[in-house]
Amino acid sequence: MKMNKLNIAFAALAISALGSSCVSRGNDPGWEYAPDMYYSKGYEPYNQADSFQLNPHGMSMRNPVAGTVAHGKLDFVYNLPNTGEGYERSATEVTAPANVDGIDTRGKYLYEIYCSPCHGIDGKNDGAVFQKVSTLKPAWKSYQDEYIQNLEEGKIYHTLTYGKNNMGSHASVLTPMDRWRVIKYVKQLSGVSTNSVALVESGVQETSNEDKSN
Ligand code: HEC
Predict the structure, then answer these.
(1) Is the pLDDT assigned to residue 121 strictly greater than 80?
(2) Where is pLDDT greater, at 12 or 128?
(3) What's the pLDDT score for residue 62?
(4) Substitution site in 118, 122, 132, 172 for ligand 1 pocket (most atoms within 8 Å of beta carbon)
(5) How many whole angstroms separate alpha carbon 123 and alpha carbon 156?
(6) pLDDT: is 201 or 41 the higher one?
(7) Which of 10, 13, 54, 182 to pair with 85, CA 20 to 30 A apart?
(8) Contact criterion met (CB below 8 Å) for 169 and 162
(9) Maximum separation of any 2 CA atoms in the chain, in Å
(10) Ligand 1 center to residue 126 CA distance, Å?
(11) Hey, which of 164, 190, 194 would you mutate to test ligand 1's pocket, going by the most ligand atoms within 8 Å of its Cβ?
(12) Residue 20, C-beta contacts closer than 8 angstroms, at least 6 positions apart
């Protein structure tokens, strides 16, 4: 008899607890005994974080040692300075890797996205931007000019990396290998192709695995 009364009391308690958590508390997740698990702290590498008082400025992460190169990003290292002298040196010191592929596919695809708005689909400097603001145009008329035909690939790489006057840097949108693919495509448009590799004909080429590790 006593047991039964106790059971009923427990049942009533359970029902009222259920009722209160389901009905009256709505979406309230209830009692959080480990709130950090529900609301994880998103540490930002280069700012705040009260808990990292030993690092300068309370940063979560320290700046890498000068000259550090991330794994697989060795080809991103470009040692020539963004100066007239660096530009001149790029003519002979910067050369295309031997295995530039996808010139007709990925090179063309990237050229049409990033370059054609100014230089035009065929490199005739008749893209929408140059048409609208003709004062932006370079002195040479088109890629078919001797200037571009004779321009060293290293100098184009330098220009794509740093930009030149009215042309901005494309380093943030083109990996080093993609820069070479576009450069080879530019040379192809100019009529003087220096492509060392047979052209790939089919469709737009996806970034290869080798690029993804970059
Ligand atoms: C905003 C317009 C604009 C875009 C986009 C642009 N360019 Fe240019 N580009 C210019 C201008 C302006 C110059 C002339 C720079 C100078 O010599 O003053 C130039 C110069 C060049 C040259 C000659 C560089 C040299 O060393 O004299 C090449 C080659 C070239 N661009 C290729 C490209 C390629 C490839 C892309 C795409 C990745 C591209 N450009 C995107 C405006 C643009």
Answers:
(1) yes
(2) 128
(3) 80
(4) 118
(5) 14
(6) 41
(7) 182
(8) yes
(9) 107
(10) 12
(11) 164
(12) none
| 138 CA distance to ligand 1 middle (Å) | 8
Kindly state if the Cβ of 136 falls inside 6 Å of ligand 1: yes
Ligand 1 centroid – CA 171 distance (Å): 13
Average pLDDT, the chain: 82
* pLDDT tier at 2, thresholds 50, 70, 90: low
Structure tokens at 86: 């660096």
The whole-number pLDDT of residue 119 equals 98
Ligand 1 closest atom vs CA 173? 38
Rounded CA separation 145/125 (Å): 11
- 167 Cα to the center of ligand 1, angstroms: 5
CA distance 165 to 87: 13
Is 129:117 a contact under the CB 8 Å cutoff? yes
Single out the residue of 76, 78, 73 nearest to residue 94, CA to CA: 78
